[in-house]
Amino acid sequence: MVKLNGEQRELSGKSVDELLNENGYDPKRVAVELNLEIVPKSQYSTTVLKDGDSVEVVSFVGGG
Amino acid sequence: MIPSREEMYAALEERHGKEIQKKFAEASVVVCGLGGLGSNVAVSLARAGIGRIHLIDFDKVDISNLNRQQYFPEQLKQYKADALLDTLKKIAPYCDITSQTVKLDENNIPTLLADFPIVCECFDNAEQKAMLVNTALEYFPGKKLVAASGMAGLDSANKIITRRIAKNFWLCGDGKSDVGDGLGLISARVAVCAAHQATMVLRIISGEYDA
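The joint structure predicted for all components is written out below.
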């Protein structure tokens, strides 16, 4: 199990790219933290989630 | 006739305490984007006596900004970086405040933000927000970054919160209210979010990292 934004999910084995696509995130508007470290955008396709990981996807909205 | 440097510093020490004021005076912060968030964040930091503040924006003051941004009608068409610098120098004449008119991107962020241990993301465009956060955290894992997302409309101010997302990354806002959904940006609610950001910056400077 992988914790995604605080919720336990069956996401082991998926890449960050797959996680974003399958959950409806716009990759241009997100920042992804894996175990409290930023995942560089260049590594979204090669970073694979494993059991016990904690992922936080911050999806930005407009306004300021 | 304005007060002397010593008089103003003594007044800040009186309010904030000597120990905290020393930390504020030695701190260095860059504010990226000088709209409703950034102009309010910068005013709060200047009033707190932050020693070094750098302001970055590419845009000019527009009449549509006056509902929530810290500009005056007489400043329309001026670069925001210039206009806000003038205002902040009146608020905090002895702080080292500088400004720059430039559009931040992946290529110039590593250079332009290099000198500042604390970065405030105060853009309005969602993709630009993500670009700054990703680029800054990738290039500068040691910097503290305080960003904002979700402060449009007139939903409860109580929904605007500060969260610590990672070791050096804090996010303020309700996370949801998007100008893209047709919501307007209203002075008080944007200022609440800006005050969250400024408060977190001041907490970080004082050594408190919890949101």
